[in-house]
Amino acid sequence: MVSIAYGRYNIMKKLFFGDSVFYKNLFRIAAPIALQNLIMSSLNFVDTVMVGQLGETNIAAVALANQLFFLIALFLFGVGSGASVFVAQFWGKKDVTNIRKVLGLSMSCSVVITFFATLVIMIFPEFVLSLFTKDTEVIRLGSSYLKIVCLCYIPTSITFSYASTLRSTGQTKLPMIASVVALSVNTVLNYILIFGKLGMPAMGVQGAAIATVTARFAEVFLIIGAVYSLKLTPAASFRELFAFSRSFAVKFFNIVIPVIMNEVLWSVGVTMYTVVYGRMGTDILASINIASAVEGISFVLFKSMANACAVMVGNKIGEGDEKTAFTYSLRIAVFGPFLGIIVGLIVALSSGLLLSFYNVTPQVYENARTVLKIFGLFMPIKIFNMTNIVGILRSGGDTKYSLFLDTTGVWFIAVPLAFVGGLVYHLPVYIVYILVNLEEIYKFSFGLKRFISKKWINNVIVQME
After folding, report:
1. Are 332 and 309 in contact (CB under 8 A)?
2. Which domain holds residue 68?
3. For 222, how many CA atoms within 13 A lie in the half-sphere containing its CB?
4. Is the pLDDT reported for residue 392 higher than 80?
5. 458: which DSSP letter?
6. What is the Cα Rg of the chain in Å?
7. How far apart are CA 250 and CA 62, in angstroms?
8. pLDDT tens column, 178-235
9. Where does residue 341 rank: exposed (0-12), middle (13-18), buried (19+ CB within 10 A)?
10. Which of 28, 34, 168, 295 has the lowest CB atom count within 10 Å?
11. C-alpha–C-alpha distance, residues 348 and 370, integer Å
12. How far apart are CA 149 and CA 215, in angstroms?
């Protein structure tokens, strides 16, 4: 028995720790993505913290306006994530021509959608915000912020497209550098324009919006300029971007549309939570949004690991090495939640310190602190689900099952429980938060079964040829 146990130990040790090159490549890809994601999360986080000095109503207004950007960003992430399935597998074969076609398709789709979103928000900002809250002051302040900040949606969509292609080909440093510049511009201009420094008038939430728009334009100009001056993989001519055939586009959207639907339906579901919290009270909404900002920062590393997983596993599938692809996915599926236990404990234990930066009432503080402690407990399961859906199942083109798993969890479990708990029984916010997170247990159970089955491994680029 001892020898059998020792033999199994050696097998597990070799599987998870016998390949140092794997972990070097994982963190080589993940580290710049993590820093970029941290910076992208920090753009809204900086707005929230600085505007937070103006009071709870201002926090709620900016948070609701940023919720709309969250919806748009998730759509862009869906397009980029779907496109990265192809880019990663084409990169396994070093097929630059088809990578550029995929970039052209994904960017066209993203720009069209963000154009219409910008148009609607500029014309009807008050109506859009009224869907989330009845507080007239929050709607007034949020509208003044939203009418300005929506101007950055189109340039952000272009940034997403190029950055996604760069990351899927292992070129992760440029998107990171561009985001560093954007954060720097946003932080400096926030300080000047929100509070009226260096001779400028104090513009409050409008100043935060102007700072964000300026930062997003700086980001897109930098990333496109560097791509073409350095002649990187996405440096396609206009003809190369739009050289795809109709059949190529049909096969592309057959994989990508389920991802877009996944992100849109999931994000709309998450927005329903905001509707519930908003109707529970402005103080509840403020506490949830403050906690969400902290949650976003704590998830940065794991989002980057999921993206790195998609690149590495997708490359191996494109090369035709399905055995190594599964081994890579297994390592990340175990390693991510293990780190999540550690980070979850840190968030739970340091929640008081993290919330001390906000100038809010004791009730908002206590609600946010309790929510963060609960988040810390759910974090390992959340990380597995995110890694499995975004990094593993999608990398193998299993986008329809990902759609099924994610949307049924949100719409059949989380959303109904949120409305019943928050608006029917008027339960405390932390209980409603627990009810919402029960969907994670459901996704873990069915997602693990799908992962083990290996049915998610598909070489999608064979179908494109």
Report:
1. yes
2. 18-458
3. 19
4. yes
5. -
6. 22
7. 39
8. 988 988 898 899 889 988 888 888 888 889 889 989 999 999 999 999 999 999 999 9
9. middle
10. 28
11. 9
12. 11
**pLDDT tens digit sequence for 143-194:** 888 999 999 999 999 999 999 999 888 888 898 899 889 888 988 998 899 8
pLDDT at residue 9, rounded to an integer? 45
Tokens representing residue 131 in the block: 């869907």
Q: Could you report the per-residue pLDDT of 298-347, keeping only the tens digit for each? A: 888 898 899 889 989 999 998 889 999 999 999 999 999 999 999 999 99
* Pairwise CA distance, residues 111 & 351, whole Å: 39
Compute the Cα dihedral for 443, 448, 449, 451 and give only its sign.
Answer: positive
In a domain, residue 57? The reply is yes
If DSSP codes are grouped into helix, strand and coil, which group holds residue 389?
helix
CA angle (148 as vertex; 142, 151 as ends), nearest 5: 130
CA–CA distance, 402 with 306 (Å, rounded to integer): 14
CA distance 240 to 98: 9
Q: Considering its fold, how many domains does the chain have in total?
A: 1
Closest CA to 206 of 39, 47, 360: 47
**% of residues, the chain, pLDDT over 90:** 45
What is the distance between the alpha carbons of residues 381 and 55, in angstroms, rounded to a whole number?
34
Is there a domain that residue 3 lies in?
A: no
Q: Is residue 2 part of a domain?
A: no
In a domain, 6, yes or no: no
Amino acid at 166: L
Q: What are phi and psi of 360, to 5 degrees?
A: -130, 170
